[in-house]
Amino acid sequence: MRFSFSLTEPQTNNEAEYEALLAGLEIAIDVIIQHLQIFGDSQLVINQVFYIYKIRKVKLAHYHRQALELLKQIPNVEIARVPQGQNAKADCLAKLAKEMANINEERPIFIGVYTRRVLEPSLL
């Protein structure tokens, strides 16, 4: 399954990576996935999930905690890092979104399949 999301508020790259992870986990839980393979290109996020890297920013700690709670709900999960240049499917979605941005036109073209709110402020 492939999904594309647009965030409703500006985020740092690491926050956006966590948002993508949370969105994917929520979808997997909703459709009752029992075996899940996660491929990500964020070395920071993946290593934080595996407790290899410490979490130094408070905001990322909230994302991390939420991700761990969601991961507990899926029986079998594998997480692998894919270098940015080798993640062709994600790169295609990102390029498509960039091309369709129409910065110079008054009426932008939206391709978003889903809109996802960022982690609720009450959780931060």
UniProtKB/TrEMBL annotation:
A Gene Ontology molecular function term of the record: RNA-DNA hybrid ribonuclease activity
Parts of the chain that traverse the membrane: none
Signal peptide location: none
Location of the RNase H type-1 domain: 7-97
Gene3D superfamilies per the UniProt record, alphabetical: Ribonuclease H-like superfamily/Ribonuclease H
Pfam families tied to this protein: RVT_3
Coiled-coil boundaries: none
UniProt protein name: RNase H type-1 domain-containing protein
Source organism of this protein record: Dendrobium nobile
Species classification: Eukaryota, Viridiplantae, Streptophyta, Embryophyta, Tracheophyta
